[in-house]
Amino acid sequence: MKNYMWLSACVALVAAVLVAGCGGGGSSSTSTPAISAGGSASTTSSSTTAASGQATPDDVYNACIDAISGTAAEQAGKTACAQARDAFQQCATQASNAPEGSARDTALKACQDAANKTTAALKASP
């Protein structure tokens, strides 16, 4: 039950990030942007942490899966984990597609900070 609460908190965090800085726009992309430490997006299909040490959408997914593994919420939680990963991918994609400038940098940083915090919280859950 405790892991399910972490999952709910993380999903709420994802929603807050999307509403706060990354929502809007109708563009879509098939690549997975991983936000680097410098604030620019690079394309990766890796499921591990980017070379910059920053969390990727796949890191969020893997940490989520690890957190719910072996719990009663595992089956239902897999869908929520995938949705969280997709939300972080969408956030990073939309932020990287924004015009150059401080608003883009702020959006990229917000997406990256949320991914880092979510991954850390999920890894810290018992």
How large, in whole angstroms, is the Cα Rg? Answer: 14 Å
Strand residues, percent: under 5%
Helix and strand composition category: mainly alpha
H and E order: HEEHHH
Can you give the helix content as a percent range?
A: 55-70%
Roughly how many Å apart are the termini?
Answer: 11 Å
Strand order in the sheet with the most strands = 1-2
Q: How many beta-strand elements?
A: 2
Major beta-sheet overview: 2 strands, antiparallel
Poorly predicted parts: 16-50
Looking at the chains present, what oligomeric state does this protein adopt?
A: single chain
Average of the residue pLDDT scores: 73
Shape assignment: elongated
What is the number of helical segments per DSSP (H or I, 4+ residues)?
A: 4
What does this protein structure show overall?
With 126 residues, this protein is mainly alpha-helical. The chain has a domain at 55-126. The chain is built from four helices and two strands, in the order αββααα. A two-stranded antiparallel ribbon has the order 1-2. It is elongated. It starts with a helix and ends with a helix.
Structural topology:
Layout: H1 2-22, E1 33-35, E2 41-43, H2 57-68, H3 74-96, H4 102-124
Antiparallel strand pairs: 1-2
Helix pairs in contact: 1-3, 1-4, 2-3, 2-4, 3-4
